[in-house]
Amino acid sequence: MTDHQADAVVTRAMEFLLAHDMAGFAGLWATGGTIEFPFAQPGYPQRIEGRDAVRAYLRDYTDHVDVRAITSKLVHETTEPGVVIVEFEVDGVTVATGRPYVMRYISVITVRDGEIHGYRDYWSPLAAAEAMGSADTLLSAFSGAGDE
Fold first, then answer.
1. CA-based, 20 to 30 A from 60: which of 85, 92, 94, 139?
2. 108 strand-pairing partners
3. SS3 string of 90-112?
4. Bridge-partner residues for 101, per DSSP?
C-alpha cells in the first residue's frame, strides 16, 4: 500500500462524512477493521471491532452531529507503508442543541488493500460533550452502539 493510496481512502472518508453518508464511511473499513478512541471518557466505547460494529456505531451519527465543512486537513506520511496521520477540523452543528460543533481530530489510520484496518481517533470528549449539551447526552448518543 502506498501513501498515495492511503491518502485516497482518507479523502474518500472525508467526502462520505460531508455527504452525511455514514454507511459509505463505515464501508471503507475492512471486515475486521477497528476504530479506537484513546481519549474516550468512561462509559464511551473505547474500541469497536469489525465493519458491522463500526456501521452500527455510526448509524445515527448524523442524527446528532451535522458536519457542514472540513475547515482544515493535513495528512502526514509515516515510515510505515499504509499508515498516515491526519489532522483535521470539522465545522458543523449539534442537532439537538443547535450549538456549533467545531472539533479538531488527529487520526492514525492504517490502510491495506484499499480498506481501513485501524483508525485511532484522538478528539476531545469535553469539547464534544459541551457541544452536545452534556456528557450524558454524548454518552447516550454513542455508547453501546458498537456492541450490536
1. 85
2. 85, 120
3. EEEEECCCCCEEEEEEEEEEEEE
4. 92
Q: Kindly write down the DSSP assignment for every residue of 2-58, as one continuous string.
A: -HHHHHHHHHHHHHHHHTT-HHHHHTTEEEEEEEE-TTPPTTS-SEEESHHHHHHHH
Q: Tens digits of per-residue pLDDT, 47-91?
A: 999 999 999 999 999 998 999 999 999 999 999 999 999 999 999
Predicted model pTM: 0.85
- The domain 3-147 having CATH identifier 3.90.1150.10: the answer here is no
- Coil, helix or strand for 139? helix
Residue that wins the pLDDT comparison between 148 and 17 = 17
Between 135-142 and 125-132, two packed helices, what is the crossing angle to 10 degrees? Answer: 100
The position carrying cell 463505515 is 26
